Amino acid sequence: MKTQGKVTGIISNLVVVEVDGPVAQNEICYINLAGTKLMAEVIKVIGKLAYVQVFESTRGLRVGTPVEFQGHMLEVTLGPGLLSKNYDGLQHDLAKMKGIFLQRGDYTDALDFDSEWDFTPLVEPGTQVVAADWLGEVPENWVKHKIMVPFTFTDKYTVKSIVPAGKYKVSDTIAVLVDSKGEEHKVTMYQKWPVKKAITAYKEKPRPFKILETGVRVIDTLNPIAEGGTGFIPGPFGCGKTVLQHALAKQANADMIIMAACGERANEVVEIFTEFPHLDDPRTGRKLMERTTIICNTSNMPVAAREASVYTAMTIGEYYRSMGLKVLLLADSTSRWAQALREMSNRLEELPGPDAFPMDLSAVIANFYARAGFVYLNNGNTGSVTFIGTVSPAGGNLKEPVTESTKKAARCFYALSQQRADSKRYPAIDPMDSYSKYLEYPEIQEYLNKNISEKWVSLVMKSKNIIQRGREAYEQINILGDDGVPLDYHDRYWKAEIIDFVVLQQDAFDKIDCNTPLNRQRYMLEKVMQICDTNFHFDGFEQCSSYYKRIINALKQMNYSEFQSEEFYNYEKELETILNERRVQ
Amino acid sequence: METKAFQRIYTQLTGITKATVSLRAQGVANEELAMVHGRLAQVVKIMGDMVTLQVFSGTEGIPTNAEVVFFGEPPKLKVSDDLAGRFFDAYGRPMFGDSEIEGEPREIGGPSVNPLRRKQPSELIATGIAGIDLNNTLVTGQKIPFFADPDQPFNQVMAMVALRAQADKIILGGMGLSNDDFLFFKNVFENAGALDRIISFVNTTEQPPVERLLVPDMALTAAEYFAVEKKEKVLVLLTDMTLYADALSIVSNRMDQIPSKDSMPGSLYSDLAKIYEKAVQFPDGGSITIIAVTTLSGGDITHAIPDNTGYITEGQLFLRTDSDTGKVIVDPFRSLSRLKQLVIGKKTREDHPQVMNAAVRLYADAANAKTKLENGFDLTEYDERALKFARDYSEKLLAIDVNVEVDTMLNTAWQLFAKYFSKTEVAIKNELVEKYWPAN
Ligand SMILES: Nc1ncnc2c1ncn2[C@@H]1O[C@H](COP(=O)(O)OP(=O)(O)OP(=O)(O)O)[C@@H](O)[C@H]1O
Ligand SMILES: [Mg+2]
Known about the structure:
The complex is a heterodimer. By secondary structure, chain A is α+β, with helices and mostly antiparallel strands. Chain A has four domains: 4-73, Beta Barrel (Thrombin, subunit H); 120-192, CATH 2.40.50.100; 217-435, P-loop containing nucleotide triphosphate hydrolases (Rossmann fold, 3-Layer(aba) Sandwich), CATH 3.40.50.300; 456-582, Bovine Mitochondrial F1-ATPase, ATP Synthase Beta Chain, Chain D, domain3 (Orthogonal Bundle), CATH 1.10.1140.10. Chain A is 32% helix and 24% strand. In chain A, strands 8, 18, 19, 20, 21, 22, 23, 24 and 25 form a nine-stranded mixed β-sheet that branches. In chain A, β15 (173-178) and β16 (184-188) form a beta hairpin. Chain A starts with a strand and ends with a helix. Chain B has three domains: 9-70, Beta Barrel (Elongation Factor Tu (Ef-tu), domain 3); 76-341, Rossmann fold; 352-436, no CATH class. Chain B is built from twelve helices and 21 strands. Chain B has helices at 130-133, 154-164, 179-191, 215-229, 241-254, 268-276, 304-312, 352-374, 381-398, 406-420, 423-426, 430-436; strands at residues 9-10, 13-16, 20-24, 33-36, 39-47, 50-55, 68-70, 76-79, 87-88, 104-107, 124-125, 138-139, 143-148, 169-177, 198-204, 233-239, 280-281, 287-295, 315-321, 328-330, 336-337. In chain B, strands 9, 13, 14, 15, 16, 17, 18, 19, 20 and 21 form a ten-stranded mixed β-sheet that branches. In chain B, α2 (154-164) runs parallel beside α3 (179-191) and α9 (381-398) packs antiparallel against α10. The model of chain B has no long low-confidence stretch (mean pLDDT 92). The chains are: A alpha+beta, B alpha/beta. The interface between A and B is large, with 72 and 79 residues. The structure holds adenosine-5'-triphosphate and magnesium ion. Adenosine-5'-triphosphate sits between chains A (235, 237-243, 264, 392, 426-427, 507-509) and B (310-311, 336, 338).
């Protein structure tokens, strides 16, 4: 028997329900508003009163409206067909909804229960299995989608029977498992999982030891992110968080991309809907949309579902990780999720923490980031969820609760600087403030030196040092004036500018420059560092600046040309000629 | 909103604050409208049989035995082609003693568009102002505010943009508009012979601030009617959103909510986003474009209102008086149209993106030179040229009184490049330089 209740209070989307039976924290219920079901989640219980946050507008709701509790928490449905879908924050398929406007209670299925999938069994009857073990697979776009023992199965099982290869619907039984007590369990191609709980059906979660190539130079070269690592991008509005995340979604070397558009602009999601079906995945040559799933809870969609959306996205990521895939999860913006928490905590009249955010904000954020990671599955395969979130600090000030809490949880920090954005030095990642903790991991250093070039890490450190010294020189020039400092200061400043213009800056809207593979990053960094190691002769600082501008121009033209094309080498020759003009032997 | 027979009437208030009243009542629906002592009010909270109503025009003089009549429905606007050419107050009632309009009543503040049913904006809005068209190109379906100090001519610029924008309908949502500004809009639209394309919902400074909260939703409900049903290109002007946000904070403070930054409600982001996200391009040609005004205090954009706005809108336009030329310009550094990528170099000439960037970069060099000068340092020969360029650029392109086609703007920019700089200094892709660098 499901617990029933009646509405007794309404404050915006916080509704108080008097219940006639047991309810659980985070349990889902439906408020039956004249035939329209409004989904809600229990967030507090006092005696017979359950406080629920409604994932919809509560306009027109009255005291006395009946409520039915579901006996489970907010769940997602996991199975073949998730790829390429566009969901709302609660995993309702946007494509199946009727009409132009989102209607309350138009809850559509996450999967297509009518379509058939080409199933191939991977186990024989008699095999011993546990949760997340692969029973079979179906082709989904280009992924071999594994049908697994449901994550909720906590016992050890023996496969009693499994269907032969053939076409099946997601709800068809494909295997029967017997547990240790001899009880039988039917397994279909889909399962459900509560989003707030991490899926931990794997053998081991080691420290990340590989890097995830993104094609973005200031990330890969200067502050690489690990496969299975975590990072975040804080920045004032308009500094390029979304453009950077879209670049990552397009180029990153991942098997699957999940984008959680969390409380941001609808037009930005439309951009993905429009472009991704046509853009090629640089690695597989297939269309980008084939490896992308979008969880879309834009700023005008119900606020409570915003919080759910990042969990929905993470759970889908963990599901694909269990199939041995490399998943990149992007969330824009995690601040909106924190704000949703704040709005609710406010309505619950909880004691507020800093900036009126809930007291446990840090813990909530840390918990979420901890779900990312590189894992060894039970069968020895590996999988990963790399997570990069954006943060939108109020007033652009990084000393605010969401940024500070996230900084404790994430290992890479890509701080966007207003100043760099203002001077159109995109991506506006501040080279001095930003960091990747992974660059300090010995296993990552070893990986980089082995896979890129022998002295790679020390070359990167050296380039960072040049940027630092260039900045110091620049400050001195500003204080003392162009001719108030030795010529050497100008030289240092301009050498740092080369790195800035050629390595750090990257045009996200240029077909070629937008994506730089690692071998090209290596080529260009080595080239630039050679120039930085060269002594040039100048008679005065004006000569110095105009000369370096020519060098930068030639290098930038190289960046805009197809790698190692004739055009590319022509600019390189031009560069050599320029370098020879003033090189001191 | 005449009284109907079945309406429930109460006569005993149990609490009164500056913006709200509460009473015991039964069967009340969340967000439904009521008349409290002859004033419109809306249900904002229900706890058991205790109902709290927000009274839009304030509670001064409301007695505890005031009559409260519930209407059983949320605020609505009657929509039809009849709306065109008319002026309404914040409640959607005709002004100037005009007759009621005929039409289908629609709930205001309705649901949002399914993002999958949107189309990517791609149609350029030409304004003739180079500071906009060249550097910060606007696109239909975009939402963008002017960030301006109160003394700047933002309403004038907005009216100019609206009239040149070739919109099928222009909907003015005036919040805390001074009577002079209201009359200014009315005159400009009248003089342009555009009145039949214009619909206005206005709350002036003389009217109660909380009423303003209805204005954007009224304006956007009318906009949705024309954009969805008539497939028209609708331009919505919202001025001044700062006063709208102030009204939000008045209400939330009265409701004892814990304020967040700058005494604004914690939900400010969501509240503003609900409005701005009504901007949309539909696949069948209809669109809603929102141009708003957010006045700043002392130019501070880190204040919660402009800050949250910046996080929601697709860019912002800054007006500034250029001390060198004495003209009001669209500031190229701080202004940004995020959607310009969708049209520049695609709907406009191929050299547009690079010319735009190069000009702004050179203008930045001039700004640096100016700082040097102010700090008493010597200028280089390059600095001198950059400064001269900046003056011309400001006068011929950035000033808001420029009114030319985009191609002319691009040609002008190339001429200025050639006049003051070498090709390497301009640093534009070679193929474009070869094609567009002026011969002489
Ligand atoms: N790499 C880039 N190359 C060129 N232009 C860029 C780049 N990154 C950002 N921009 C410019 O900056 C604008 C704003 O970028 P974006 O939308 O990513 O900002 P944001 O940080 O996500 O802002 P918000 O917090 O408001 O969402 C873009 O529309 C574009 O004009
Ligand atoms: Mg963004």
